[in-house]
Here is the input.
Amino acid sequence: MEMIKAPRGTKDVLGDESRKWAHVIGVCREVAEDFGYKEAMLPIFEHTELFSRGIGDATDVVEKEMYTFTDRGGRSVTLRPEMTASVMRSYLERDMSRLPQPVKVWGYGPMFRYERPQKGRYRQFWQVDFEILGSPSPLRDIEVIDTSMEIYRRLGINNLSVLINSVGCPKCRPAYRDALRGFISGSASGLGGLCETCRERFERNPLRILDCKNPECKTLTDSSPSMIDSLCGECREHFGAVTRGLAAIGASVSVDNRLVRGLDYYTKTAYEILAGELGSQNAVCGGGRYDNLAESIGGPRVPSVGFASGIERIVITLEGQGVNIGEEPKPRVLIVNASEEALISSVSLLHELRGAGLSADMDCAGRSLKVQMKRASSAGARFVCVIGEDELASGTVGIKDMSDGEQRTVSRNDAVSALQTCLLDWGKR
Ligand code: ATP
Ligand code: MG
Here is the structure.
């Protein structure tokens, strides 16, 4: 029978790699606590409409990338391609506007997008997500950007570029869209100079043309008008406040007039953090302000700002920069045993050791004492408990200190406390 393999674009995170993931999530949790974000655990599937209305019908994510299916009750549901829409759905549905504002939420988990898999790009990928809901203040944009930068700082990641732009609001964006369209159609090559996807984008979502990786599209839009020049007074002021605030906290950021985001809900601030280690999938983090998302999914206006960062890409960057996250913890105690009878006695000692909070393990395969000792040594055990024929007969246990090879004998009843003392003394060395 043919072996069943994992679906394309998914990844098994195992062993040493999963430790790196846990480390990343742990650092995010610490930062969340220090910055005052509360954790939210949200469903990984939602009604399809949440995303088609929230993210926008004309976006790549909604048009081409969603995992959408009809469930057994005939409803259209979608595996979440991102978390922000769910966070806002939850804010509205749980009436969080009654809480002191803003509401600061973080979470993490798998997201799903039907994309072409390559390094740093998967169909199931994980994001950590931070959101501040219910505040229009540019200070919150700064706080969100600072949150993301603090995570990478604590992770020991360097050499990131932070790019920032303003994508305006429904008041000023239409004029910019027109200006961009006018620029493209008036250029020497006109619409014909764009790739096929961008020709489609031209009518429906022209801002996305600025984000196209195709070299011809890039060249064509190189000298296109800048969004910043089209901003309305309010957006311009907001952008100025954000850049001034970032300068005040010493954040090194560059303004990139071409930066747009793949999701329609962004207003005003959009930003991205890039890492060289990622190759062409170079964005480790993307975020910005989304003042109109709540209204687009049927709520009142809830001005908000947030970011999401891909865990796979964080881990690739950690590895690429050789960041050391410390040794894997080793079992402190290994029990080696001599006979079938000793096995039972070992199991009960193992149970007691673990119950006392010690990390301990044993050999269950009835290997020779010599082989077991070798294994204990290569596993890096601090102490070995020997239960041989003699120990069994005399109701004792041998404790061998693996650092100097010294062995002493204690009564079986005192074994747990003796090992606790040994480990304490060893810890003080
Ligand atoms: P990209 O331009 O690389 O497609 P994006 O703009 O679609 O990214 P966002 O929707 O802003 O990405 O998601 C935020 C972050 O999630 C990205 O910066 C990236 O780190 C990560 N991410 C997005 N899509 C994927 C994917 N398919 N596989 C792995 N990580 C991803
Ligand atoms: Mg994308």
Remarks:
- Residues 15-35 form the longest helix (21 residues).
